[in-house]
Amino acid sequence: MIGVGKIKQHANVLDKPLSKGKQEVSLSAFALLFSELVQYNQTQVDNIAEFERRLEDAGYTVGARVLELLCHRDKVSVGFQEDGFVYCLRCLFISWEDRVSDEVDERPNAVDNDLNVDKPKETLQNDERPGKETEGRHNCWGFCPLYTIQYGRCYLERSINSFLSEMQCGFHEVNEFFFTVRSVTSAADSLEKGTEHEDEYMISEKELLVNRFISIPKDMGTFNCGAFVAGIVRGVLDGAGFPAIVTAHFVPMEGQQRPRTTILIKFAEEVNTVLSLFSFHFCIGFEVIPAIVDDPQC
Amino acid sequence: MIVCVAVVGHQNNPLYLQSFTEADDELKLHHIVQCSLDVIDERVNNPKKTGPTLNETFLGLLYPTENYKVYGYLTNTKVKFIFVTTDLDVRDADVRNFFRRFHSAYVDAVSNPFHVPGKKITSRTFAERVSTIVKSFGMSAAA
């Protein structure tokens, strides 16, 4: 009887439907892909500045698409200009869990905003648009965070849409090769607001995922492959309506072998007027590294 | 019966415009879509205090004309989806469902590396998916 069962299994192996596969891809596969990107660009350029620009442009196209995708997936809507901006930064930097748990009663639908037909959303008509008058509370919402900080750990979520299909020849229409890499144990991030300029913000990370297996030769100077990540950030901010110049820099730290990477975000002029309209409370709830902030309320 | 579907970019440039009836009324439908853009701008710039603010993606009924109804949907990147229907009684749930699937198809089309953001969507797959969604909207509304 057991033998019969085994034979049946063998016969059915070919008949089994193909599995969908895992949703995650190994870090090594991603590292290999990224190294190919870097090598390809290296052969196309003459100088370092253009090399960085090309990497950043590649990241920009990714960022623009990622924003659409993440918004659709997480079904969170973004307010425009003020709210969206504050939420952008909030999502990017502060302790997401803390904020959500504090305010989940005050904003009943802020986090879970899906178009579920089973639950009629009569509360939608009664919600107030948060404005400047609600100081001290972040009842605003925004797009899904690229970096979310939860209790001091950083989950780096990246999605690269149809990246491989660019490398492949042929005109596949939506060859969506989609993979996410989650790095659970990477070091904590910090948000810093530049002290010399009002419109500068910095995300710093101990080691960027893309730089993990890369070491820059001495003759390349200050080149940083994190320009790709900077491009992604720029694409996301641009898509959300906050044009900015984003660059990646190495910051050497004493006591550590490899330097930290800092992503510097410098917002454009029109965003500045928005910034000056309201104060930031984004440092509230931020528990990892004290932010270098001017704001006296923090 | 949905007669026309449109995707409009954040600078009010048309990205995709497709009508599902005989070609007579096509121009009129395009005109209706343009008019509804004004309504969207109005809604976005003057948020009513009691209006739907959280689910800002779905804008609801924009513009009831003599025999058409126009519904709108706004994404986070200020891309607008509009459709024009001749049904007189349309359930809210159906419309939301439609927009959800439409958004999904749109995201897939935009993820195409050969798609230039800001230019028209020329993907055949997107067109097929949209016509499938449109057909099934008609079915579910009738049922």
Automatic annotation (TrEMBL), chain A:
Keywords: Endoplasmic reticulum, ER-Golgi transport, Golgi apparatus, Transport
Organism annotation: Tetracentron sinense (Spur-leaf)
Protein family per UniProt: Belongs to the TRAPP small subunits family. BET3 subfamily.
Pfam family, one: TRAPP
Annotated compartments: Endoplasmic reticulum; Golgi apparatus
Region (Disordered): 105-135
Protein name: Trafficking protein particle complex subunit
One CC-aspect GO term: TRAPPII protein complex
Single biological process term from Gene Ontology: endoplasmic reticulum to Golgi vesicle-mediated transport
Basic and acidic residues biased stretches: 116-135
Major site of localization recorded for this protein: endoplasmic reticulum
Automatic annotation (TrEMBL), chain B:
Keyword Transmembrane helix: no
UniProt xrefs under CDD domains: TRAPPC2L
Main location: endoplasmic reticulum
A Pfam family assignment: Sedlin_N
UniProt family annotation: Belongs to the TRAPP small subunits family. Sedlin subfamily.
Protein name: Trafficking protein particle complex subunit
Lineage start: Eukaryota, Viridiplantae, Streptophyta, Embryophyta, Tracheophyta
InterPro entries: Longin-like_dom_sf (IPR011012), Sedlin (IPR006722), TRAPPC (IPR007233), TRAPPC2L (IPR044760)
Species in which this protein is naturally found: Tetracentron sinense (Spur-leaf)
Superkingdom to which the source organism belongs: Eukaryota
A GO biological-process term: endoplasmic reticulum to Golgi vesicle-mediated transport
Keyword hit for Transport: yes
Annotated compartments: Endoplasmic reticulum; Golgi apparatus, cis-Golgi network; Golgi apparatus
Protein keywords: Endoplasmic reticulum, ER-Golgi transport, Golgi apparatus, Transport
Subunit structure, as described in the record: Part of the multisubunit transport protein particle (TRAPP) complex.
GO cellular component, one term: TRAPP complex
